[in-house]
Amino acid sequence: MQDKNFDTLAHKFAKNIYGTPKGDIRAAVVWRDLQLALTELGDKPLRVLDAGGGFGFFSQKLAALGHEVILCDISAEMLSLAQAQIDSAERDLNIRLVHSPIQALTLAEYGQFDLILCHAVAEWLTDARTTLSQLIELLKPSGLFSLMFYNKEAMRFHSLVSGNFDYVAAEFKIKKKVGLTPTHPLFIDDVRGWFDDWNMELVSQSGVRVIHDYLKHCQPQGFDYAKLLEMELIYSQREPYISLGRYVHFIGRG
Which InterPro entries match (predicted)? Predict the structure, then answer.
């Protein structure tokens, strides 16, 4: 099994994912979910693993709250970006950088964690279920697993409303892949089934970008992106909007 390595796309990834309105939505929805879920673990420093966390957007936010974080990624360039941001932070951040595939993380070397993050990683793996099953072996009893994955049904729906019928009929197989288009999107029901198999309770379910990606090209006069963000937060935890999220964010409790 081989992870997607973003070494050659690191700066483009950082800009496109968190330097845009869609990045603001992603950050707001996931951070809201995490803050609510973490209240269950009490007011204490936590051990956090950010598996495949890139430059550590959420690692840095969690470390700023006083938590101990291990940030693991296969991309040396991503970790270089992370180190630069950690060095320039206003306060010391307890973040250890690990240059490694997440499949190589072991209980013997790294111990157990109160919280494991795995965001926008599963859809790049040829066998996500096996990798994630290995990952949650590092979770403490009653610990939290935060998984955000690319939603295949939303990918299909977006292509349909865009009129890309040939793309849908070909099951999304094209000769030239766009660099940041995930290669192995997942169905929500399949991932819910994995959580059941792992005996994990789903404590939070949200769609990420349930509105943004379906907006018409021409916006009404005075269109307000702040209002869009507000609506994303309101509808992100309601059906049918969860199932329309370009990404879906699950938090499970072991």
Answer: Cmo5U_methylTrfase, Methyltransf_11, SAM-dependent_MTases_sf
CA separation for the pair 76, 96 (Å, rounded)? 14
Query: What is d(CA 215, CA 217) in angstroms, rounded to the nearest whole number?
Result: 6
Check whether 26 is labelled as a binding-site residue: yes
Question: pLDDT, tens digit, for every residue of 157-167?
Answer: 999 998 999 98
- 249 labeled binding residue: no
pTM here is: 0.91
| Cα–Cα distance, 29 to 111 (Å, whole number) | 29
Please report which helix (H) or strand (E) contains residue 117, including its range.
strand 113-119
Question: For residues 168 and 157, what is the distance between their CA atoms, to the nearest angstrom?
Answer: 9
Task: Decide: residue 120, CB within 10 A, 0-12 exposed, 13-18 middle, 19+ buried.
Answer: buried
Q: Is 53 flagged in the annotation as binding?
A: yes
User: What are the tens digits of pLDDT across the range 169-211?
Assistant: 988 876 555 557 899 999 999 999 999 999 999 999 999 999 9
Long-range contacts formed by 124-132: CB under 8 A, 24+ apart? 124/3, 124/4, 124/182, 124/183, 124/184, 125/1, 125/3, 125/184, 126/1, 126/2, 126/184, 127/1, 128/184, 128/186, 129/194, 130/1, 131/1, 131/102, 131/103, 132/194
The CA–CA distances, whole Å, from 226 to 22, 92, 116 equal: 12, 31, 30
18 vs 21: CA distance, rounded Å: 8
- CA atoms of 238 and 91, how far apart (whole Å): 37
